[in-house]
Amino acid sequence: MNLTISIVIPLYYAENILLTLVKELENLAVINQEKFSIEIIFVDDGSQDNTFEVVRSIKTEKFTLKAVRLARNFKSYIAILAGIEHSTGDYITFLPQDLQEPPDLVERLLAKIEAGSDVAWAVRRTRSDSFFDQLFSQLFHKLMHWLWQDWPETGADMFMITRQVANVLLSMQEKNSHITGQILWSGFRQTRIFYDRQQRKVGKSGWKFWKKVELAVSVITQFSYLPIRACTSLGILLAIVGFLYGILIIITRLQFKIPVQGWSALMVVILLIGGFQLIFLGVIGEYLWRTFDEVRKRPVYIVREKI
What is the extent of the structural domain holding 253? Predict the structure, then answer.
């Protein structure tokens, strides 16, 4: 048996679930010991609890264990890239810490890769989250699917890639991006399996509303020019409407001697146009900030400690 699967698992305040997670991984390793060996790469993404101390105490002979502790919270996407960079397996997959994606998906993804694909996605069929979490997720993924037809309409939280695809991801070195979009953009032979997302077993999600909004803005601005095009189109439309309305006012004033009235209407127009201008500047600023952040050439992540 020479095949090795690297499983990257970002950790963030995971001290209460870590030992349960290790048991699940050990079961996965034992069941598949005749098929492949497992390399686990834990990436502590700046947790301020005892997560890394718990990792340090793990003793197992069922799989190879590596651990990387980042100097601060760089977000899960960056943590996944850090894990991929420290992996040595033939194929690399990613598993969330909360076990809502069952570990046995690794076997199903591997079957797709061995059948000739370079990328295998685990696409959610159903999920057992709260109503508002499901609603926001559906809106985000439907929007991304509308912008980009290859984007899974219900979202994909797990994948397996070949070493060649991993090398392409590592070569990108993008800070404000999303690994799903990068893998889709890279091309290669991609396929999907479907699964039902399980209920969280321990703890609560740290993925709060404003983090989701920040992610949505980052992904849309990183992989789509639609916001800029929308601003341009709306600006042209408003300019045309304003020009025609200006002509109408001049004609009314000169020909029919009707006094120009409407202080309230004038204020509404000024506030409306001013609001649109601020929105346009905000959209442009989002793109400019990401450009500035990339050209500074700061490291994508900083490692504090390794095991």
Answer: 226-295
**Which CATH number characterizes residue 143's domain?**
3.90.550.10
Q: How far is CA 205 from the centre of its chain?
A: 15
- Closest C-alpha among 101, 51, 43 to residue 68: 43
Q: Which residue type sits at 167?
A: N
Give residue 149's identity as a one-letter amino acid code. Q
Q: Are residues 81 and 194 in the same domain?
A: yes
Those residues with Cβ within 8 angstroms of residue 252's Cβ, 6 or more apart along the chain or in another chain: 258, 260
Q: pLDDT tens track of the chain, all 307 residues?
A: 578 899 999 998 888 888 888 888 888 888 888 888 889 999 998 888 888 888 888 888 888 899 999 988 888 888 888 899 899 888 999 888 888 788 888 888 888 888 888 988 888 776 666 666 666 666 766 666 666 666 666 667 788 989 988 888 888 877 766 777 788 888 888 888 888 777 665 555 555 556 666 666 666 666 666 777 777 777 777 777 777 777 776 676 666 665 656 666 676 677 677 777 777 777 777 777 777 777 777 787 888 888 8
Domain match, 279 and 197 both: no
Say if residues 165 and 134 touch (Cβ distance below 8 Å). no
